[in-house]
Design goal:
Length: 809
């Protein structure tokens, strides 16, 4: 069950290369992720680590910066750094193409990042592709408080109801990623994001190959999972170097509990055109169609009373019909809210278009420029059938359809200039975003007199009997940045810069039915988030060949969210509905934070180590307190004051036998993260004073531990990995929580030698949740109450099996 009417919803032949892959599910298990390679020595040091790039893999769009020969070899601060971030001015880590390949096809890149210290990824499916359940956190910040970009192009906030961007899984097919990185502390000043209170996630796509080739994958497995992927590389078409790649994927998989099929079709196209020796033009296009049939959101009471397998009634319309009449057949009457666990169906549908065009040029040896134009459109429909509303024909159920349309157009431009020991950079970003959303009510049939539409049917608003409400939001974003990286000595660099941000949103009301909303008119107005100076200072000092320390300090700001009444769990001024509360909310200040971190890195042949300590002072935190049934979710927006976060994290990768012929490929990765994020203040609303000062923020664990033991010998490898997560609080008062959990995975793979035109054939076997642990996957998808239990959790998937076959031509 989802939020009130919610929005849903390689390679080569040396001439041709094809990769076949069979996986027992479109699902992915991180059991296949080469965890020992998260914190590894830089590739230049000669280790056979997972940060290496396959021989024919192309590099991402961004070129490496010019730098003194004595300095390490990181990418620019806005780009990813490999492994444990060697040479970076702040903590930045990445999942390489090799790590992504070690995951089963269809893996969410964000789930792979979840193996890094300080990063928490949760989901109700084993592969992170079920968008309603997918959540990523970094050092206490959630996905709507982080920044996300693809090849530098902004993707907006993540989460389910994306109003200003596009889901990472729908922006690019995983096989087309070169790598994915995250800055756990603060995003660099040049990251195009209005939500990056904390760090930023950067995805980089593969460039088309210089050689003609192709890639094909076939995936199948648990829950009738079936996924086809095909990619074609043109190779260099002429003397100027023109080349392109085109790919397609089609995947279907059944829910692991209940009924319904989730499906995705997606197309990626990318071209690269050199313009002389110093310039280039790159274009990218993405189309996707995605459908989900949702799981029932659960409370602790529902779980303890009905078990973890309870789900929506679909396709048993008769049982849902009876429940709406108060005739319960599955024990719902034993729970504390029978009707709120008695929904017929819920689903989410999406169709997306996304494209960009980027020009880059090294005008001189010291001056470089780049500019990008982009366009994105996402249409969505979320449906669910509720017992809380009736149909005009007398049926005790009502089908509700929440629609959305996000249309963005924007450009980015930046220039860099090197003079003496300085690397100066400046840039600008502008975007116009129009977000339309609304709720339509549809009639369900009388029992025996027809069949309700399938949850995956796109409904026509013309067939609705009521347009309950509608909004249109128009947002203009203008952001500039300036920074200087100064090489003080051969081993000491410092970076200082700032960004300016101006984000203005105005809304209009397109529909309002007072009999549904309860308001004679819905509030409308303009909100602006502005700060001309958001500074950042970072430094890196390498005091031996293998050891370095780094420091970062930044002030950050997040623009205001945009949701109407359907926002539910979203902290939006427009979601309150009541005009008086809205005008109070309009006086809120934007959320801001000061982020501090310092750390130490070590790399040698035997081990890679990283230790970081950090502090975050978060002010004007805007939080929604949820109450009521899911279908009539009441979200009250509150400024709960400040939040103070103190934390530390470390990782250690051991390579105990670097010179052994047999055991050289043995490695053991461990990471531990501690985060204590507490509210600084009590807050008052219409029900009184709530004493949350000193309480931990909901949904986020204080302690996580991740480990992976991997052995690679010749063409074979095997790994076992596990993750521990401490309890996560459901309520602001910390009097209800999801218990700790421990999930273990297993992965094994073998690569055969080439045969004829076949260059690579590999077999893989993955087992997710090896011990079949019964655990709560996602917490807080419906928001959080002040105190006690609430229907805001999703159960994690049981043991799942995945098998993969790959071949390259």
């Amino acid at each position: 069950m989802t939020n009130g009417p919610r929005m849903v919803l390689h390679g080569c032949l040396s001439g041709f290369r094809i990769r076949l892959a069979f996986s027992t599910s479109v699902a992915v298990t991180l059991a296949t992720c080469a965890m020992p390679f998260v914190s590894c020595a830089a590739p230049a040091r000669g280790k056979g680590t997972g940060t290496s790039i396959p021989a024919r893999a192309s590099t991402p769009d961004a070129a490496a910066p010019r730098r003194p020969a004595s300095s390490p070899a990181p990418r620019p601060e806005a780009i990813t750094v490999v492994g444990n971030g060697r040479g970076s001015l702040r903590q930045m880590q990445s999942a390489s193409r090799t790590m992504l390949d070690n995951s089963a096809p269809g893996t969410s890149a964000l789930k792979v990042l979840g193996q890094l210290p300080g990063v928490v990824f949760t989901s109700a499916d084993p592969f992170g592709a079920y968008e309603w359940s997918a959540r990523i956190y970094s050092r206490g910040f959630s996905e709507n408080q982080l920044g996300f970009t693809l090849d530098g192009i902004p993707l907006g906030e993540q989460g389910y109801n994306i109003y200003n961007g596009l889901s990472t899984t729908r922006a690019v097919i995983t096989e087309n990623l070169h790598d994915t990185s995250i800055s756990q502390g603060a995003a660099a000043v040049d990251v195009a994001s209005t939500s990056a209170l904390g760090g930023a996630v950067s995805l980089h796509t593969l460039m088309p190959s210089d050689m003609a080739g192709g890639l094909v994958e076939q995936t199948f497995g648990s829950n009738s999972g079936f996924r086809t992927f095909a990619r074609v590389d043109s190779g260099r078409l002429n003397g100027s170097g023109t080349k392109f790649s085109a790919s397609f994927t089609d995947s279907t998989i059944d829910k692991w509990k209940g009924y319904g099929t989730n499906a995705t079709q997606q197309v990626n196209f990318k071209f690269y055109q050199p313009l002389g020796e110093r310039s280039s033009l790159t274009g990218y296009f993405d189309w996707s169609s995605h459908q989900e049939v949702d799981n029932q959101d659960l409370s602790l009471n529902y779980i303890h009373t009905l078990g973890t397998r309870v789900d929506n009634y679909y396709p048993n319309y008769a049982a849902a019909y009876d429940a709406a009449l108060g005739i319960y057949t599955h024990g719902e009457n034993l729970t504390d809210d029978p009707k709120d666990v008695s929904y017929y169906e819920s689903s989410g549908l999406r169709k997306d278009y996304f494209a960009y065009l980027t020009f880059k040029s090294d005008i001189t040896d010291n001056l470089d420029v780049n500019a990008s134009f982009y366009y994105s459109n996402s249409a969505g429909l979320s449906t669910f059938t509720s017992p809380y509303g009736s149909s005009p024909n007398g049926a005790p159920l009502q089908l509700q359809g929440y629609t959305l349309d996000v249309s963005r157009i924007g450009f980015l431009a930046a220039a860099g200039y090197r003079i003496a020991h300085n690397h100066l950079r400046a840039g600008v970003w502008y975007e116009n975003n129009q977000f339309n959303n609304g709720l339509y009510l549809y009639q369900d049939p009388i029992l025996g007199q027809g069949t309700p539409p399938s949850p995956t049917t796109w409904l026509n608003p013309k067939n609705a009997f009521d347009h309950a409400y509608g909004y249109v939001f128009n947002t203009n974003t203008f952001q500039t940045f300036f920074e200087d990286t100064y090489q003080i000595t051969r081993n000491f660099r410092i970076n200082a810069g700032f960004k300016s941000m101006l984000v203005t949103t105005h809304d209009g009301i397109t529909a309002n039915d007072p009999s549904y909303t309860g308001y004679g008119s819905l509030p409308s107005g303009t909100m602006t988030a502005f700060d001309p100076f958001l500074p950042q200072v970072s430094a890196n000092y390498r005091f031996t060949h293998d050891d370095e320390v780094f420091f970062d300090m930044a002030e950050t700001m997040r623009a205001f969210s945009q949701f109407g009444l359907s926002g539910g769990a979203s902290a939006s001024a427009w979601s309150v509905g009541d005009p008086t509360q809205f005008h109070q909310a309009m006086r809120l200040k934007p959320e801001k934070a000061w982020v501090f971190e310092m750390g130490y890195r070590h790399d040698d042949r035997w081990l890679s180590a990283l230790v970081t300590a950090y502090r975050v002072n978060f002010e004007n935190r805007q939080q929604v307190v949820s109450s009521g049934p899911i279908i009539q979710l009441v979200g009250v927006l509150n400024n709960v004051g400040g939040v103070t976060t103190d934390g530390a994290e470390g990782s250690l990768t051991l390579h105990p036998f670097p010179d052994s012929r047999i055991f050289k490929g043995l490695s053991w990765y461990n990471s531990i993260s501690f985060n204590r994020s507490t509210f600084d203040n009590n807050f008052t609303d219409s029900t009184g004073v709530h004493h949350i000062a000193g309480k931990l923020i909901p949904n986020y664990p204080e302690l996580t531990y991740k480990t992976s033991l991997m052995y690679r010998y010749g063409p074979a490898s095997v790994n076992v990995d596990a993750q521990y997560m401490s309890r996560r609080y459901i309520s602001y008062m910390n009097d209800a929580w999801a218990p700790h959990n421990w999930v273990m995975n297993l992965g094994a793979r073998y690569q055969f030698p080439g045969y004829g035109i076949l260059q690579h054939i590999s077999l893989e076997l993955n087992v997710y949740n090896l011990l079949n642990a019964d655990y709560i996957g996602t917490v807080g998808e419906q928001g959080n109450p002040i105190s006690g239990d609430y229907q805001t959790m999703l159960i994690g998937a049981p043991r799942q099996y995945f098998g993969t076959v790959r071949a390259e031509f």
